[in-house]
Amino acid sequence: MQPSEVLDRAKSVTGSDKATAEALGVSPQRLSDWRAGTRPFPLVSQAKACELAGMTESEQQRYVWEVIRARMGKPIGAALGGAGWIGSTGVGFALLVASLGERAATMYKPFRAQRGKC
Predict the structure, then answer these.
(1) How many CA atoms lie within 13 A of 49 on its CB side?
(2) Residue 100 CB partners (closer than 8 Å, separation 6+)
(3) Which residues contact 95 (CB under 8 A, 6 or more apart)?
(4) What is the helix (H) or strand (E) element at residue 30, kind and residue range?
(5) pTM, 2 dp
(6) How far is CA 110 from the centre of its chain?
(7) Taking residues 74-83, what's their average pLDDT?
């Protein structure tokens, strides 16, 4: 699943891009840029979009893994969606799962087990 698909699912829940942008705390233009891929879509914002889209926990886990695997080998800033001040992808992932509340422990456990295999 691509980030634009997550945003489309969120839009189907909220009813419009404007409402989706408001729910994510960004401008409609920023949302449009994320969908088009012209601006980095921060992982924490992607996590919020997944939740807004009504994705199940397993769908969110699969999506997060797809995003992380797609970003492996890129500069840290790109790998973390523009958050270049963070020191590693592992820290970025930990911040992402921390933003997911109680599901964080469940999601981080398979990451720790797979970390050496990526």
Answers:
(1) 27
(2) 47, 51, 60, 107
(3) 43, 44, 86
(4) helix 28-36
(5) 0.61
(6) 17
(7) 50
